[in-house]
Amino acid sequence: MRNFSAGNDGRILDSRGIEVGVLDSTNVLERDPVPGPGLRVIDSGWIEGEAHRAWGPEAWARFLRAWDAFVQGVREAGGEALVRPAAGHVIGDAPRAGVFLRERPGARLALEPSALLTPSMRARGADHLGRLASSFEPRRVALVVMGGEEEEVVRLAYPEAGVVVRSGGA
Fold first, then answer.
1. Distances, alpha carbon 87 to alpha carbons 16, 92, 170, in Å
2. Dist. CA 6–CA 110, nearest whole Å
3. Sign of torsion, CA 69 74 78 81?
4. Beta-strand pair 11-13/3-6
5. Are the C-beta atoms of residues 35 and 44 closer than 8 Å to each other?
6. What are phi and psi of 83, to 5 degrees?
7. pLDDT in tens, 45-97
8. How many angstroms separate the CA atoms of 81 and 73, rounded?
9. According to DSSP H, which parts of 2-151 are helical?
10. What pLDDT is recorded for position 1?
11. Of the four listed, 5, 9, 123, 152, which is most buried by Cβ atoms within 10 Å?
């Protein structure tokens, strides 16, 4: 397992403080993410105030076009592209992430467990995180982004994945 850290600037650093990637929070439904070397993590995009539209076929198609172009650019730069699911985004839950992984067989995830919990889910967070921990084949999860101890169950489920610990707030 590889251990990394990430601050508010989104840079992923190894244990020596050397940048090895980026957590890019660009909304890919509005602007193309910038490919580059190393680990390149993007969100799947969202529609502000209208999460239900982010789950529709138009947003799905826009995300897949952006993803495919991003992956090509990242590969050309010698990097690895990952997507981070988040509640309210195009890939907003484990079932939708499963659909994405079936449609893009080479794709891998950067799981940030707390990002998949809506406010109403937090009361039963341990139950939801336990299900998330058994949702994917371990080889399909490249990183687990940790923001707190409650997410440890997910990290333990994917022992080969690198671990990014957020510092300075998420």
1. 32, 4, 15
2. 13
3. negative
4. antiparallel
5. no
6. -120, 140
7. 999 877 778 889 999 999 999 999 999 999 999 999 999 999 899 999 888 99
8. 9
9. 51-54, 57-76, 94-103, 125-132
10. 55
11. 5
Enter the DSSP assignment of 21: E
Q: Chain-wide mean pLDDT for the chain?
A: 86
- The contacts found for 155-163 with CB under 8 angstroms, 24 or more apart, are 157/133, 158/111, 158/133, 159/1, 160/1, 161/1, 161/111, 162/1, 162/2, 162/3, 162/4, 162/39, 163/1, 163/2, 163/3, 163/4
Instruction: Report d(CA 137, CA 126) in Å as an integer.
Output: 20
Model confidence, pTM: 0.85
Q: How far apart are CA 42 and CA 109, in angstroms?
A: 10
Longest dimension (CA), the chain: 43
